Amino acid sequence: MRTVIFDLDGTLADTSADLIASANHCFRAMGAGDVLDPVADAATAFHGGRAMLSLGLTRLEKHSDGEVERWYPELLAAYGAAIDVHTTLYPGAMQAVTALRDAGVRVGICTNKPERLADTLLTRLGVRDAFASMIGADTLPVRKPDPAPYVAAVERAGGSVAQSCLIGDTTTDRETARAAGVPCVLVTFGPTGGDVAALEPEELLAHYDDLPALVARLLPVVAA
Questions:
Q1: Catalytic residues
Q2: Which helix (H) or strand (E) holds 110?
């Protein structure tokens, strides 16, 4: 069964402003004010909470792995309390998902966001039921770019890894697809969009309107 697995942050949804806000909550608690900028630092947001804390603490000349781990639970709590204030789905994303499903393609999600937070966000956005699987950072003992979460997302969606592809936005997604031996599609409309061509994915996606045709090329229907 043909299957398309999506990354979440920076791929299906622009979550950067809410992620940055959660990091700035921590920096304000330190007495430092808003250290990260929701626009200039949006790309860092898509690398996760620890990356945002590392960047901010480095700017404050207070960086250490211990400080990052100390504040990470606070960041997650702040993010969970205000997870969908600014977050929006990218234009055409769910129309493309619907078109894929109508064509008999299974769809799922593999994200490095903690599973509970990812599930909450998708539910609040009203789209959780559109996806047959959802694997988060803590669903398995390993996370992307290890291929195991991707494989689990495909299998839980009822698909076959040999007839699947990954839609993402960062080098983590590119490395995951390579490790799993599947085609990778990287979106060009997010904060890292100008750089993803250098990662040499099998396809680039400039707008979700183009995804159904792109998937048809990458995953042609196999005759019975």
A1: 7
A2: strand 106-110
Phi and psi at 204, nearest 5°, equal -110, 145
> Tell me, what CATH number does 187's domain have?
3.40.50.1000
Asked if 57 and 131 sit in the same domain, the reply is no
Average of pLDDT values for 22-36? 96
User: Is 7 within the bounds of a domain?
Assistant: yes
Same domain, 8 and 28: no
Same domain as 109, residue 77: no
Looking at this protein, which amino acid is placed at residue 91? P
Residues 55 and 125 in one domain: no
Q: Tell me, what's the pLDDT at 136?
A: 97
Q: Length of the chain in residues, anyone?
A: 224
Which pLDDT score is estimated for 124? 96
Q: Where are the alpha helices (DSSP H) in 82-170?
A: 93-102, 115-124, 147-156
Residue from 167, 165, 166, 171 nearest 195 by CA: 171
For position 223, what pLDDT does the model report? Answer: 64
> Is the confidence at residue 222, as pLDDT, over 80?
no
State the residue range of the domain holding 153.
3-14+87-218
pLDDT given for residue 47 in this prediction: 86
SS3 category, 66: helix
